[in-house]
Amino acid sequence: MLAEVTAFAFPPAHQAYLLQARQMQALSFSVHIPLVCFGIALPAIILYVEWCYLRTGDTLYRTLAQRWTRIMVALFAVGVITGTILSFEMGLLWPNFTATFGSVFGLGFAIEGFSFFIEAIFIGIYVYGWGRLSPRLHFASGIPIVVSGITGSFMVIAVNGWMNHPSGFRLVGGKTVDVHPVAALFGNSYFWHELLHMYLAGYMVTGFLLAGAYAVGRLRRYPVPPTRYERTALAIPLTIAALAAIAQGPVGDWAARDVASTQPVKLAAIEGLGTTTKGADEHLLGWYVDGRVKYGVAIPDLLSLLAFHNPHATVQGLDTVPPDQRPPVNVVRVAFQTMVGIGTLLGLIAVIFLFVRWRHKRLPDSVWFYRALVFAGPLSVVALISGWVTTEVGRQPWIVYRVMLTDQAVTGASGIPVSYGALALVYLAVACGVAWVLRRLARVPMDSGQPSPSPAAG
Amino acid sequence: MHLYDVPLVFALIGLGLYAVLAGADFGGGFWALTAGSGPAGERIRDYVHHSVAAVWEANHVWLIFVLTVVWTAYPVAFGSIASTLSVALIVAGFGIIVRGAAYALRSGTSSTAETRIVDTASGLSSVLAPFALGAAIGAIASRRVPVGNAAGNLITSWLNPVGILIGVLAVATCAYLAAVYLAADAARGEEHDLTRRFRARALGAGLAAGAIALGGVAVLHADAHPLYHGLVAGNGLPALILSVLAGICALGLVWTGRFEAAQYTAAVAVAAIIAGWALAQQPLFLPHLTIAQAAAPHDTLVAITVAVLAGAAIVFPSLALLFRLTLARRLGHTDEAPAVPTPVAAVLSASTQGLLVRVAAACLLVSLAFLTATDAHWAHVIGVSALLVFIVTGFLAATPAELAQTSASRENHTE
Lengths: 458, 415
Fold this sequence. Notes:
The structure holds 2 protein chains of 2 kinds. Chain A is mainly α. Chain A has 13 helices and 10 strands. Mean pLDDT of chain A is about 90; it is low at about 445-458. In chain B, a hairpin with a 2-residue loop joins strand 1 (about 285) and strand 2 (about 290). In chain B, helix 1 crosses helix 7 (about 160-190) and helix 3 (about 55-75) packs across helix 4. The interface between A and B is large, with 132 and 119 residues.
């Protein structure tokens, strides 16, 4: 509570470029998070397809699994390096955070490191084992990838949950004492909704992007009916993404209510609630100026109802904390509304798709459905990043909620703008490279008869 | 040994494994860079890529392992090191980015020229990354990283005689290890021309690394006397002797063409010098900071020790499997069509579909009720479980397999 006078491992650094440091961290996250989605969802999707192949002997599934494997390996390689940069930044950008609290949260990353090991080892075996290992053994080698993808992100989210809802230590003279890392990370009730929210997002991003790629192909050939391959390739990721998009609704609601009870200031920023209000209104769109939302559509009492299930409940406003402990309201608010807006659109696409699928036992025919689907993938990435902006910027100015300010965590080293610019350039180049390689992989002719060679073939 | 030493031993073992495994991958990049043009160069570059592609990610993770163990068990030391050496680490990071991206991009290249560009970028970064990491170790070893938030000089802490020496030595060692491993691999595959060429490279790089190390003794004497003293007269001496003997022995084995044995002996030489550094420097982690002072509280040390031991019990057998498959050449590109499994059954019978849709819808409603109506933990557990059942049954009900299935029979009909 008394962050201003609390001592940490190192004295304050007086960094002039705190904002650039935060942006550099945000850039690194934004590049890495979509790749994490593929790490979570793609191995499971591929394994499902391979299971279909083993069960039916239909080579269509093998072709699909092999083609998606090549996407998986390319994106995994990029995920490895962007993840490495994130771990470097723990010390490069926030040395006082790591120096002070590494003993509390570090265990999560150490276990995540082992998940990463298992993932990397079995991706090597799975990817380069196509056609080399027996079908059953090959399938089995994919299972650890799926499991470690889950445990890895579990650990990272546990750390993030701890930053939002810190416990398991005491600070005495800048040192952490009474440290109980296991309780701090896993005894924390705050992270479960965050974890589920992220998993579902992973399946949505992966599914909609993959389906979107096939929707582009479908539109190019429209109105020629899709081949069996095209139908299957579109339907599998789309079904998964659609189910996840629907499931995201109740989970998102749960997450928002947890934020309302444990991080009221974040909720106030999300909703642009300047003053504590009994029976607070919900505002759609609009812009936060001078303690209130202007130009928005107000729905009376809805915020109280949503957050506390009581239209007359009191919702804490931003005025409960001094101005220097409030997050940048409009950034958080716009990000949140973007996420919810896109999520709703994706949910709509999902409902239409599942209805046609269940009712008429076919894929939708409308050209408009496929046009929407093309945008669904990129939009789901925007929603994903908006969601992380909501939770991360919404926690500002704290790095460890109500314990350590971001300003107290930052490095004292000079040259942050230079590193930031250089990283942005390098990531731009990597993004172009990835776009190029994915286009190349997509263009490999389908009907070559031979199973596609593994990426090692170059 | 005390409990507070244990995680450091783990980190040093991790560092040693990173050096001899990922180091060799970087070294492979060096040989791809210097392979020259023409079919001969192309052959080397392809060979290097193929022998590294399946294992580089797993080898790379050792670096992450070292970072996480150090920041968990010695947080103040980690914060001091990472902030003072930020420039070195960013340079290494950029090298790692470009090298990793190159692996992703190489699978999309379709002409020799394209492959060459990717390999050159990969090769340059494979020199940059070990140099910067080596120089960072040089900075720590020469006591130029004080405790504090960027308390040391951002540039001269690592760009100094000792830093440059260790950086260059790291590059040469990586090249040497890679050449020995590649020679061993080529010998197993009975590719005699490649074996010959990698043998020559191994001898050249091994002699170069040895010469740098010998010259380095003088540099240490002048620029990092405590380390020099610890290595030649203190606790580090046995490790130094072991390293020198193993190095000479490995060169002899390469000379006589026993690459398999040379591989392990060379790795011992590298691991021994890391151990020597640690022994020479202990009990200090950083200037005025002993290992005991740097260590995290007791519970954290216990937790990390347990986590590492449990993790190792899973990771080492997995790694052994990966390396066994790689060494047996069971991973990689194949032209043989794989055996088609005997069809067992259709993915799902269509008759259950209507039921599944109803179950899915019911589960969605249940989860909505339990997740939104109350905040009790038990209710959320039920809600989440119902949600998972909704996804699984919903997926089965929409079973995309049916799309392929029905049309397959339809297409067969029309044929």
